[in-house]
Amino acid sequence: MTRDEIILAAKCCIVDNCGACPFINRGNCITDFMKNVLECIKNEPALSANSTSSEVSVKEDTDNIHLDDNTKRHICQAYNTADEACANMLTIYEGMSECEQRAFDIGEVYGKIYSTRDKLETSLKELTKEGGA
């Protein structure tokens, strides 16, 4: 699945509406969803020392953003640590029984949904403040 399809599936879960979900009528959607998320994370290329976040590029005045070598090194080290942790978690996951995988998947999905819902609520509050001001 593409990254956009995975994001669409997460959005469908957040609003509890399976209508547009790419996992609808495809076995255990939670397990399939998490396997795709893990695969996407596992296959995501590492950032180079010269790359910057796509989020930064859309902010105003990006021409004035310069990262020194030390900051770039820390970013790359943090990414490599996260990548290694994801690989380790995938190895552990693959060694779990089906029941343990289901419990893990449910916990992971719940955590992602809760986190995303919290971010959306915060964004909505900020938009409401901007619109009301």
Total helices: the number is 5
Shape: flat
Instruction: Provide the residue-averaged pLDDT.
Output: 76
Low-confidence stretches: 54-59
* SS content category: mainly alpha
Order of helices and strands: HHHHH
**Can you give the helix content as a percent range?**
55-70%
Rg measurement, Å: 18 Å
Brief summary of the model shown:
With 133 residues, the chain is mainly α. 69% of the residues lie in helices and 0% in strands. It has helices at residues 3-14, 29-43, 54-57, 69-94, 98-132.
Summarize the topology:
Elements: H1 3-14, H2 29-43, H3 54-57, H4 69-94, H5 98-132
Plain-language structure description:
- It is a single chain.
- This protein is mostly helical and 133 residues long.
- Helix content is 69%, strand content 0%.
- The protein contains five helices and no strands.
- Helix 1 (3-14) crosses helix 2 (29-43).
- The termini are far apart.
